[in-house]
């Protein structure tokens, strides 16, 4: 949607062969004479060009599936932008009152990027005007086109901009519609995470000791907090302690507290984390790294719900719910004797397995889009989007550090991105499937090869389930069918031995 600003009055008037918007600007913008408004078309193109000859040449480059509006100056272009909401604008930088320079064109580009960040702007420059083209890309234009007019190249560049706008729109919808979890802070679209979130919703109100297992950065602590927040203990403390981060000799007093004089330096009594969490939830992160002597003490607490502060004579009763997490394979630790079997059974009344990001169908791009939005706002770059190569790279990368790694990469990319689109290289990613040896005909070929490879990969990964493959690719199912038709890709596995 465009930012609402004061609208310019205009009079809508039908004429025999064309529809004209008369606006109180020196030059009106005019809709496509071939079709007029009201045609059933989705693609809307605004051509901003002050030369009447070029206007009509450009207008006739596009077939009936593109609705075209023409504007001759900045004012008319802004009116058309607001009323017509084109997905793509071609913008000649040399506009009146500065037709020989680029000042007015840059001012209009700035307006478009600000008012309608999703609109793709293709800047039209003279042959000698490379410097301005590069500056325009830096300001947020998606592409540029050099005069003189060549119908094939212009339509190719404009169609590519339409495709990009469409992909970004689909991804926006995906991130808005598919976040089916009610758990605060968790962004998820995959069936794997949605079903885990449903489990969390069921487990939270039951006062059971829960073990959350998953690779680093998958959101274990986030889920532990969610369990607390959705339980009847939500109004009490959530106390977290990382068993791997605290030296063994301090961990006991951190957990259980100590009495005055219990050891040198204990000048006064202090509650431990377990007591602090009284009435609430104790989160023991990296429980797999808990030293053996403390495992015995923790087991006693879980069995009897009493603790002994270090140096204390009398035990203290504590009412806490315990949630543990680890990235380690606890069963293996038990089999090697590094973890007590009886403690393992105590802490795992319910076990939640958090899948790695690479195991969640379609989540990588949904989480990345959400992070780009939230981190973009934090870093004062709220209108950034991902380029096509970034989307492919995000989907193709294995994310060994999971969401934490994603946060780091996206933060960096937001800082590094030069235009309004974050590229794969801003993210320091490359998608091996799409690397070419430079021996390519043109960009169209590169893009089509990339699309073909991504579709094949998604179909195989999803076992030829079209809905799932479409989700993996961040596109709709009809778009996937169109693409498989276009590239003549089989939509079912090959049957051998026929
Ligand atoms: N599904 C998600 N949606 C949005 N943000 C997420 C998601 N999962 C994790 N995060 C964010 O990723 C970061 C890491 O999450 P968290 O600390 O919960 O992971 P962890 O599994 O406990 O990591 P570690 O094992 O390293 O302690 C946090 O900033 C968290 O908010």
From TrEMBL:
Pfam families: AAA_lid_14, HTH_8, Response_reg, Sigma54_activat. Transmembrane segments: none annotated. The modification 4-aspartylphosphate is found at residue 92. InterPro entries: AAA+_ATPase (IPR003593), AAA_lid_NorR (IPR058031), CheY-like_superfamily (IPR011006), Homeodomain-like_sf (IPR009057), HTH_Fis (IPR002197), P-loop_NTPase (IPR027417), PEP-CTERM_resp_reg (IPR014264), Sig_transdc_resp-reg_receiver (IPR001789). Residues 186-415 form the Sigma-54 factor interaction domain. Residues 44-162 form the Response regulatory domain. SUPFAM superfamilies: CheY-like, Homeodomain-like, P-loop containing nucleoside triphosphate hydrolases. Keywords: ATP-binding, Nucleotide-binding, Phosphoprotein, Transcription, Transcription regulation. PANTHER family: ALGINATE BIOSYNTHESIS TRANSCRIPTIONAL REGULATORY PROTEIN ALGB, TRANSCRIPTIONAL REGULATORY PROTEIN. This is PEP-CTERM-box response regulator transcription factor. The gene is prsR.
């Amino acid at each position: 949607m465009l930012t609402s600003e004061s609208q310019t009055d205009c009079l809508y008037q039908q004429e025999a062969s064309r529809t004209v918007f008369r606006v109180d600007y020196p030059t009106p913008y005019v809709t496509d004479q071939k079709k007029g408004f009201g045609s059933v078309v989705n693609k809307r193109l605004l051509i901003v060009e002050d030369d009447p000859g070029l206007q009509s040449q450009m207008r006739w480059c596009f077939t009936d599936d593109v609705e075209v509006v023409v504007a001759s100056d900045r004012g008319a272009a802004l009116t058309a932008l607001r009323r017509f909401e084109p997905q793509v604008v071609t913008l000649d930088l040399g506009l009146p009152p500065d037709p020989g320079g680029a000042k007015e064109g840059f001012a209009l580009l700035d307006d478009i990027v600000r008012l309608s960040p999703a609109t793709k702007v293709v800047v039209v420059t003279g042959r000698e005007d490379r410097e301005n083209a590069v500056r325009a890309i830096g300001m947020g234009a998606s592409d540029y086109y050099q005069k003189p007019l060549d119908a094939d190249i212009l339509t190719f560049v404009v169609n590519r901009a339409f495709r990009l706008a469409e992909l970004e729109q689909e991804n926006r919808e995906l991130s808005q519609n598919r976040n089916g979890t009610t758990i605060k802070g968790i962004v998820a679209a995959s069936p794997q995470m949605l079903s885990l979130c449903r489990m969390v919703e069921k487990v939270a109100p039951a006062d059971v000791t829960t073990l959350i297992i998953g690779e680093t950065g998958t959101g274990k602590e986030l889920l532990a907090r969610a369990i607390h927040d959705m339980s009847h203990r939500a109004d009490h403390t959530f106390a977290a302690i990382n068993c791997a981060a605290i030296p063994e000799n301090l961990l006991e007093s951190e957990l259980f507290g100590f009495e005055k004089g219990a050891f040198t330096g204990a000048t006064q009594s202090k509650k431990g984390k377990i007591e602090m969490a009284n009435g609430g939830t104790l989160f023991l992160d990296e429980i797999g790294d808990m030293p053996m002597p403390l495992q015995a003490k923790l087991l006693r607490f879980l069995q009897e719900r009493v603790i002994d502060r270090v140096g204390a004579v009398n035990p203290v009763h504590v009412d806490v719910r315990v949630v543990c997490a680890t990235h380690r394979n606890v069963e293996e630790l038990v089999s090697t004797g590094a973890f007590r079997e009886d403690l393992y059974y105590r802490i795992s009344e319910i076990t939640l397995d958090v899948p790695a990001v690479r195991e969640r169908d379609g989540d990588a791009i949904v989480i990345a889009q959400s992070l780009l939005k939230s981190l973009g706002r934090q870093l004062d770059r709220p209108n950034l989007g991902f380029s096509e190569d970034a989307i492919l790279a995000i989907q193709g990368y294995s994310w060994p550090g999971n969401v934490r790694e994603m946060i780091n990469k996206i933060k960096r990319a937001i800082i590094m991105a030069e235009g309004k689109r974050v590229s794969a290289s801003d993210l320091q990613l490359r998608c091996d499937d799409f690397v070419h040896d430079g021996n390519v005909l043109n960009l169209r070929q590169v893009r089509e090869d990339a699309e073909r490879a991504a579709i094949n990969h998604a179909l195989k990964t999803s076992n030829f389930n079209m809905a799932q493959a479409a989700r993996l690719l961040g596109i709709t199912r009809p778009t996937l069918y169109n693409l498989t038709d276009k590239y003549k890709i089989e939509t079912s596995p090959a049957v051998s031995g026929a």
